[in-house]
Specification:
By secondary structure, this protein is α+β, with helices and mostly antiparallel strands. Helix content is about 30%, strand content about 20%. The chain has a six-stranded antiparallel beta barrel. Strands 6-2-1-10-19 form a five-stranded parallel β-sheet, with helices on both faces. It is elongated and about 85 Å long.
Amino acid sequence: METSHDKSDSSKPAKFHDNRVIVIGAGASGMMAALSAAQRGRQVIMLEKMSQPGLKLRITGKGRCNLTNTSSLKDFLSHVGSDARFMRNSFSQFFNTHLMQFFEDHGVPLVVERGERVYPKSGKSLDIFLALITALEKMPNVDIRRNCRVDSLIIEDGSACGVRCADGTVLRASSIVLATGGMSYPLTGSTGDGYRLAQLAGHSLSPRYPALVQLLCGLKIPNELVDFSLKNVRLSLSRPDGKKICDNFGEMTFTPNGISGPIVLSASRQATAPLHNGEPVIAHIDFKPAVEESTLDKRLINDLNSSGNRLFHDALRLWLPAELIPLALQNLHIEYYKRLNQINSAERHKLLKFLKDFSFELTGTGGFEEAIVTQGGVCLKEVNPKTMESRIVSGLYITGEVLDLDADTGGYNLQIAFTTGFAAGNNC
């Protein structure tokens, strides 16, 4: 819904603004905040700096939109970083079953796939966006203003009471919801505006890093291996002293300059801060996690003895998919045409080490332009976990990725966005 508006409404009496809520940002969190506030009878102005709302939502999950996860509350919280306890109260108001029912009620059938991940049955994130924007446009008390960037918040006597837009417009309201998103996928409008506005309001910020992102390394990745999917492997990250940072099992891929895929993205949440602070992080890949090292060594001995005349480069197919063989050859430094019966004990142990613990140092992460979420943000101690209201500025509510909250892949981050948006809109 588009409406014309005066350059400023700040001259109108205070009571005129008592029922008004301004939502800054029209992403998942902002749209849910606007809906829940409007359903309570509030007059809502939703300000979106881009020409279209929901741009990031439309591309999430590679265009499929993994909107939540059906796991139990306890399991769900185990996938949330920073202080997961912060979400307990708001999840009691609006959790995965509530979100699923919301979209079913708005004409979007859902399916639950592997890992308890929930998607629209159509496989199109656009359907999720359309359900939200259509619901908003049908509400007479919601005013959606596009191409409207907020320059600053208006705070008087410790209370948020309005915003000043880039075009000079001043809008007054009794409640402001800061739902601008983080810094990931900046082309969709997520350029960190919320952090700047929150900091100007007096909030402290934890450092922001790209998260759920590929990990970079100095390995030479053979062309045959790029984008090849490795299933059922184990990836662990450690410090140089051997102290383990994380351990993940599942699917991964090699990229032209690093590693990616579900278990890598999850691991990146633990790696991004140390890597961006110059601390060494070592990646360890176990290509045979279902087999104990001693058992695998016995198998290698048996294969070497029983296929003694077979050439080494050809025999690698006994233990590895073809796409991994060039990587093995360039790292094992075992003669290409050597026969298996010529492989000595030291070379066998090198092969065993490659299969069970192929390790290399990481050099960094992908940037915000490819990161799924932002790690870091507004300190959670400065926000009421029940209402999302700032403890520093009354009437200011902070939601979604602006908060110091991030989670693993699997629908957890979008649920956090929807839940914090609902809590803010329902309580402002």
